Amino acid sequence: MDLVIEARNLTKTYKMGEFDVQALRGVSFTIERGEVVSIMGPSGSGKSTMMNTLGCLDRPTSGEYILDGESVGEMNDDQLASVRNRKVGFVFQSFNLLSRLTALGNVELPLRYAGLTEGRRERAQAALEAVGLKDRMTHRPYELSGGQQQRVAVARSLVNNPAIIMADEPTGNLDSKVGKEIMNLLLNLNKDRGTTLIIVTHDPLIAEQTQRVIRLRDGELDPASELTRKG
Amino acid sequence: MNFTQALLEAIESLNGNKMRSGLTVLGIVIGVAAVIAMLAVGNGAQASITGSISSIGTNLLFVFRGSADGPPGGPGSGGSGNNDRPLTLSDAEAIADPLAAPSVDLVAPAIQGNGTITFSGENTTTTISGVTPGYAPVRNLELAEGEFINEEHILGRMSVVVLGPETAIAIFGHSDGIVGETIRIEGQPFRIIGVLVAKGGGAFGSEDNSAYIPFTTAQARLIKRSSLDEIDVLFVQATTAESVPQAADEISNILRQRHRTPIGDDDFTVFTQQDFLQTFETITGVLTIFLGGIAGISLLVGGIGIMNIMLVSVTERTREIGLRKALGARKKDILLQFLTESSLLSLIGGIIGVMFGWLIAFTVGQVATATGNNFVPIVGTDAILLSTSFSAVIGLFFGIYPASRAANLEPVEALRYE
């Protein structure tokens, strides 16, 4: 069993004024390499906190989180930045592309922060080709449709060959037809490259297409969660 | 992220908001241009004054009545009212003695007063100096036409006059071909025997705007003094520029003996040309620093403008910063990015400002030349280096706070920012 994510008894407490808010109250699960998993839950369930923790944007208050063999809990900010750069690709609901940069420039961005000086352009081109945007490389975000922008974001997420791709409501800002295309693109990337895919969503239709669903409720795992790989 | 990339990104980012970048740069441009122009004008004024003082002659000394520390008794005052003994012709003769004062070359006593010159209805008021033949070589006066006052004129108390070119133009409208004409000074007729070459301004006002008559004539008929051999000022030429301090000592000793004054209680002042230079250099130096300081304040204001715009920019781009962090940017990457932007703003402002300031200085020089003043602003390399490095430091300094604010944003918070 090749585990890419190991979460053990994760908790997260926020200070809101005088009150402590417990967003996660001891969550444990594992994800194997190559899986497609969705994380669901109503708002306030700790879904966003879970995604931030899994994406190394934030540290858990207690518990252990091992991503692709590296224990994240004790890392400092710069080490976390490095882990995000190498191991995590993000796809956001609102695309989050830099409007000043071309599609190519946006996809190159993670490679710049990886300290790569050569071969950036070629790798970015290859990533854009993989998402079907070969002839849109020099366009800027405002010259692209919503679906095309999200494709650029997908290309950006996979350009560094990350261990996991975290997609946060990737189809939330798209109509259903284009949303379906993006889902198919993500699923195909998983199939072709074996990249682990974690989709945070509240759309059951999206969750249906993933191999298993982890459900959160009030900061704890819902008993309906599928905690291990099917079959 | 290396520096070249940071620079490229900064250019991209500044280019993306041209209007704002331009206005921010303008603040620095004005500051640097003001510093450059002010320093250039200050330095130019200093050079101009130094030059005109040097034109008096580097081995010249002035001796006035009265102590420099005590009650004033400068040139031309000549009046009573204090106990200082006036300088006399015998003082001049004693100083001229080569045995008593070996460092003294020439001595030229003079009495001075203001008088009105008239010629067929035209009139002008100018300084009338009663001088001896030695005056011309001591003061470096050159004649454009005619001759200077000689011994014969002195002995005969003759009514002859040598005019400065400005005085001549004021009466005749031109300064050539007037030798032999007769003008009236304070109503008395004087024959013009010479006209001087124009020299420009000097320490005692313009020598071009003056009239010289024989010492004895002035004494007897124009400038009345209480005793017959009293003089207002004594011009002394030292043998060389190096012997000026020694000559000053010799003159002081002679005058102390003759006036019977103890050391430290002199009733005369020996002033060298170096003293003049020092005094004026101090004045213009303070002026330059003052002007530069005021201009420096505008540079500071420009720096605050940069800080302001960078803070706005950081707030505006919070999401971008969050995204960059999510993609793996470390604190120092973000810090470098924003510092590069602010430094670039001030650097561009500095470069344009230097050119602009040079242009202002050049224009001031052109205007001065066009209006007949011999004044050339000097744009020094030190001023250029000073203001550009100062503006770059300002860009860095005022960029640090916004940049560190950007670098320390929490990625989660920044990504959520609307």
Describe the structure.
With 231 residues, chain A is α/β, with parallel strands linked by helices. Chain A has a single domain (3-221), classed as 3-Layer(aba) Sandwich (Rossmann fold). Chain A is 33% helix and 27% strand. Chain A has a 6-stranded mixed sheet, with helices on both faces. A 4-stranded antiparallel sheet of chain A has the order 2-1-4-5, covered by helices on one side. By secondary structure, chain B is of the alpha+beta class. Chain B folds into 2 domains: 3-53 and 278-416, no CATH class; 67-266, no CATH class. Chain B has helices at 3-15, 18-54, 89-96, 135-138, 151-155, 165-172, 215-222, 244-259, 273-316, 318-326, 331-370, 381-407, 411-416; strands at 60-65, 87-88, 104-119, 122-131, 143-146, 160-163, 182-185, 188-196, 201-202, 205-206, 210-214, 230-231, 233-238, 268-272. In chain B, α2 (18-54) runs antiparallel to α9 (273-316) and α9 (273-316) packs across α11. The longest helix of chain B is centred in the C-terminal third of the chain and has 44 residues, at 273-316. Mean pLDDT of chain B is 84; it is low at 70-81. At the A-B interface, α2 and α3 of A face α1, α10, α11 and α13 of B.
The stretches of 5 or more residues of chain B where confidence is low (pLDDT under 50) are 70-81
Q: Cα-atom Rg of chain A, whole angstroms?
A: 17 Å
The beta-strand count of chain A equals 10
Number of strands of chain B: 14
Compose a concise summary of this entry:
With 231 residues, chain A is α/β, with parallel strands linked by helices. Helix content of chain A is 33%, strand content 27%.
Write the layout of secondary structure elements.
The complex is a heterodimer of chains A (231) and B (418).
Chain A: E1 3-16, E2 19-32, E3 36-40, H1 47-54, E4 62-67, E5 70-71, H2 77-87, E6 88-91, H3 103-113, H4 120-130, H5 146-158, E7 164-168, H6 176-193, E8 196-200, H7 204-208, E9 212-217, E10 220-221
Parallel strand pairs in A: 3-8, 3-9, 6-7, 7-8
Antiparallel strand pairs in A: 1-2, 1-4, 4-5, 9-10
Helix pairs in contact in A: 3-4, 3-5, 4-5, 5-6
Chain B: H1 3-15, H2 18-54, E1 60-65, E2 87-88, H3 89-96, E3 104-119, E4 122-131, H4 135-138, E5 143-146, H5 151-155, E6 160-163, H6 165-172, E7 182-185, E8 188-196, E9 201-202, E10 205-206, E11 210-214, H7 215-222, E12 230-231, E13 233-238, H8 244-259, E14 268-272, H9 273-316, H10 318-326, H11 331-370, H12 381-407, H13 411-416
Parallel strand pairs in B: 4-11, 6-8
Antiparallel strand pairs in B: 1-13, 1-14, 2-12, 3-4, 3-7, 3-13, 5-8, 6-11, 7-8, 9-10
Helix pairs in contact in B: 1-11, 2-9, 2-11, 2-12, 9-11, 9-12, 11-12
